[in-house]
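Hi F.,

I've been meaning to write this up properly since the lab meeting, where we talked about keeping a consistent format for the predictions we share between groups. The idea is simple: the sequence comes first, exactly as it goes in, then the structure tokens exactly as they come out, then a line or two of notes. No screenshots and no reformatting. I'm using this chain as the first example so we have something concrete to point to.
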Amino acid sequence: MSISTIPLWQGLLKNQQAQMLKSAKSADVKAAVDYFAAKAPKVTKVDDLLRDRKLLNTVLTTYGLESDISNIGKVRQLLTQDPSDPKSLVNRLVDTRYLQFVKDLSFFQGTPAALTDPAYQAKVQQTYALNVFEKNLGNQDSSVREAAYFLRKIGGVTSVYQILADNVLRDVVTKALHLPDQFAMLDVDKQAKLLSQRLNLKDLQSQFASQTDLYGKAAADQINVQNATKLVGAASTAMTSVVGELQAIQNAYANLVPRQDPTGINGAKIATQNTTAPQLAGVRGLIDAAQARLSGSDTDIARLSQLATLASSAPDSTTLSAYQTEFAATSTRLIRNLDSATYVDPSDATQKNLLESSLSITVNTAGGSFTFSGTDLTPTVRAQLQSAQSAFAGLTYPPAVPGSIATDLANARTGAANAVTAVAQQTQLYNRAIVASDPTISTAQLGLVIRADNSSQEALGRMNQIRSKFADLGALVSTGAQSTFTGDRTALDAQVQQIKGDIERIIQTPNGGKENLLVAGTNSYGLISGTLLEIHGADLLTSIRDALKDTNVKTAANALGASNLLKGSVSDALSRAQQQITNEAGYVQGIAASGAFATTAPTQQLTLASQSAVDALSRAVQVSTLLGQLQILASSAASGSASAALDTQATQIKTNIQTLINTPGTAGLDNLLLGPKTYGFVNGTQIKLRGPDFATMVNSALAGLHLDTVGNATTALSTINNTILPNVADGSATLTSDAATLDKGRATFDPRTAIDDRLTRFSQLLPSILNGASVGSGNLLTSVADTLIFTKSRPGSYDISGHGEFDTQVAAQIRAAIASLRTTAAAPTTLLDQALTAALGISADLRGDISRVKFGTAEIDQLVTDKGQFESALAAKPYQGTKKAQSLALQYLSVAQSDTAQLTLADIMSGNTTGASGILNLLA
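Output, unedited:
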């Protein structure tokens, strides 16, 4: 033994932290780890590593294998052979350091992920510095290096086979125990047995090693618990949203009752509004009809003027004829629109037209009288259009276009423009009449509505900003997920983290002091004319910010995971939040629309009417599409392709059209394609939806049309073009206008509509909310079975309740409530009460599950914490060791360079230890 061995050893044990830190900060170590950090992520194949000797030396030194730096062939075999093959080199080497080397850096299945993993880089930095430190110890005294390695490793050894498999541990232990070199010639099991008889491993093990199995089980238990907690948490968050919305809707229905009580505080107002509401609904219908029929009139008249100009220079009679056909069709449509700008007034059931000068309606509201007057458009513009149409139809080739056509069209265009202005003025008057219907609404109440609307619109604006940031974030993580990416990942990740910070700031910071509707919580704006106005915030902090917490692009694998997260659950959460805020904004606007009225209407009839109109118009579009297909067939047949086969195709299309017309898309709806229908409105009046009689104007008209001959096809084409399609367009336009007026009437004159619509929108959002409770493949709100967590680190199990009853006890009741909106006069409060009771029960169960798991697994969390603390302590002082381990290391140092007599194989086999100077007794 060198004279400096013991002082060197004692100095190591006393000042190991300072010595290690000094070594780690040395220029050589820092240069090596910095070089690794820069070069390792760019390695894609084994030759990249083997050719870079500096990088390879750092890697090998990290595993204590620096002596293999010149044995490139051996290293190549280790890193390219199948590590699962028993015949591979790594499985034929006893030294376990090679096995860890291959586990981390095998290129057998492609580039190892460790090379781009920040956690692995941190491991290299620490372990390389440690091995360099020990290597430097060896330069001073090789036995001190081996003793240091022994102290660092022996605490984690749980089997003597681990000692036998590690050359350094084996050397230290056999020399300390005076075992001869021939000991290695024994069968490995015999060696293990003899060592077991002479070593008490528990005396050498650290606390960590003695509880390795327990710590491993605790870590696995914690992951299971965390996964289960995420599952419960996602379900609980979803249920919080469901409960909050159900409570808000129920509160709104409850507050509506006194508002609509004719014997209550609004009695006098209701009496007046029972008369004015039908009158104002009629005015609204007239305005809607006029606006719809005047829409595009300026463009159409301009086209007529253009046709007149083109006709004067028509190159031939065929072209002139085409111009005349288009002129006739366009002018006929314009005239038809003027005559069809009608609405059936609910107050007296008569049909009126705002485009006729004879119209005059006076409405006496609580805040004043308002007279709505028609405009003298229909007679004069009709006459001008008819005059121009007649003159244009009489042109012959070569044409001499009279100036009267241009004059008539210019006058018609001016008249139509004046009518548009007049209708706009009537609209302004209508809006003032609505406000005057309840002059007692305070400025403060109106201010609350405006504030709520501004807050919801502001939140939607920030949602758009978040979507923009998401697009930027998605582009960055997609770049980072590419295996061919060779750029600076640190800089790329800095951009990712910056955008995440931007997203959080957008979520947290509303503009202009508005309420923040992007965070959880209920924002109440009080009672607006007796109806509660509440908006629920979308919990983006949980569903977006927290979900992105660990997102990074430090490795391709991390970036890929981030990309999948953005495209999956986070994107879904953002869409749900945007839909929720949009729904809340719609509720605010609904409350604002009906704020002045406290009237009561047969809501279920109006709901049925609205849904029936939507269905009918949807089918009308499909009918028009099929008529277009039939038109193409007829055109082809009329051009000479008529045949029985073509007629058969036409028959099938006609059958499909007939089925569409005769069958509503949803059972229970009225069929408004078979004619008009009336529905109850305020104070016993009725609103009429003028559904077109498609049975006559389409089915009957098509019945006798055939494409089997050119003559029949020509007749069919003419009927389709000149009769059926115009009638379908006109009938659809009338129903569209009536349906729009109906929906505006519901929203304005029936204050329950805003709440019903909120319920409907909530039911549409429900599947998305339910999907948000999914974590991986699990979802406690769809599962009929409980999730059982069995812990292995401590006796116990936890039963996480599945709540498959959510569908039958919550969602089913909500669906039934929606269905009742068009069949039952009363608000669906009983069904919603049942849904709310069940939802509250599920929420309570979920909270209970979270609490039980949290408090019941505190011991597991503590074990994991203890493991982390011990690992940190071990990293700080790796050469601490137990007293027995230090004694064995010291004995190794004392005999490493001495001539102390060794035991013979005979001594070992016979159990004689007298030549070992009592050392074995010391270790017993």
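Notes:
Confidence is low (pLDDT under 50) at residues 914-924.
The longest strand covers residues 522-528.

If this format works for you, I'll send the rest the same way.

G.
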